[in-house]
Amino acid sequence: MSPNTIAILMPGDMGHGVGRALREHGKHVITPLNGRSDRTKGLAEAAGLHDVGSIEAAIREADLILSILPPASALAQAQEVADAMVSTGAKPCYVDCNAVSPDTAVRVGKVITGAGAPFLDCGIIGLAPGKGGGTRFYVSGADTGPMLALHGLGFDVSSVGDEPGRASALKMSYAGLTKGTWTLHTAVLMAAQQLGVLPELLEEFRISQAATLKDMETRVSRLPADSGRWVAEMEEIASTFASAGVTPGFHEGAAEMFCLLARTPFASETRETIDPNRTLEQSLAVFGEHLEPK
């Protein structure tokens, strides 16, 4: 049976886009906004999501809960929901869609199933629905039917097995490449700047690495806006790699790069307020001012 009432926890950049897509495809989408920021409330309103106030109200009403928030909050959010399930007696299926390691996903699952509710592990790949390109939800768990029923409602859904953690393993591996590459680009450029050879390096990139340079010019200046919430994601990737016997060092370094970017004034930007006219060189100059002393 396809779930009709879906709760989004919480409607940030990805969550409000998912909620909008579901609403536009006929689903009743709710969200609890008590205590949330003005920006989150604005995104929810723009997406047409119905504010039910509290977590408890959302649990009572929802057929399906999608947890979409920064990974550092995933376990605490699951515990809050589990407590609400116990107090209300409602046990809707809970889907952890956060960028967490397989081990963290399993821990979240134990919290939810301990409250008596079904649990699904999920990894989201791609931009939010409506922002270009396909959005893909990879899910794993004992019964992925509730999520598979949402396939085609603004995004694609695929099952990757019946074990919680498999979907998160796929997400961690993917983000290890994408966000890991962006931080490597930033580190290379900052090193060249600090060593006084940035103009020469950029000219060489124009000759021999044009596609990579274009990606740098597109991405690097935008990274601070997401840096705070991506630190924990890099730490989750490092933990995932370590559990697989692969060095975690790459993504421990990536976490350090995001910590640096989070110290810059650009970290106060949101995706809506990023200065589109700031050049790569201007961004790097400010990044360099926030390097920790040797």
Q: Could you name the key traits of this structure?
A:
alpha/beta; 53% helix; 294 residues; Rossmann fold; N-(1-d-carboxylethyl)-l-norvaline Dehydrogenase, domain 2; single chain
Question: Looking across the biggest beta sheet, what order are the strands in?
Answer: 3-2-1-4-5-6-7-8
Number of DSSP-assigned strands: 8
What's the pLDDT, averaged over the residues?
96
CATH architecture of the largest domain: 3-Layer(aba) Sandwich
Q: Please, how many domains?
A: 2
Q: What top-tier CATH class of the largest domain fits best?
A: Alpha Beta
The end-to-end span amounts to 59 Å
Low-confidence stretches: none
Total helical segments: 12
- CATH-level-4 superfamily name of the largest domain: NAD(P)-binding Rossmann-like Domain
Largest sheet report: 8 strands, mixed
Order of helices and strands: EHEHEHEHEHEEHEHHHHHH
Q: Tell me the helix content.
A: 40-55%
Q: Strand portion, in percent?
A: 5-15%
The whole-angstrom Rg is 20 Å
Question: What overall geometry do the principal axes of the alpha carbons give?
Answer: globular
Which fold does the CATH topology of the largest domain refer to?
A: Rossmann fold
Structural class: alpha/beta
Structure description:
This protein has 294 residues and is of the alpha/beta class. The chain has 2 domains: 5-162, Rossmann fold, CATH 3.40.50.720; 169-289, Orthogonal Bundle (N-(1-d-carboxylethyl)-l-norvaline Dehydrogenase, domain 2). It contains 12 helices and 8 strands. Strands 3-2-1-4-5-6-7-8 form an 8-stranded mixed beta sheet, with helices on both faces. Helix 1 packs parallel to helix 2 (38-47). The chain is globular. The model has no long low-confidence stretch (mean pLDDT 96).
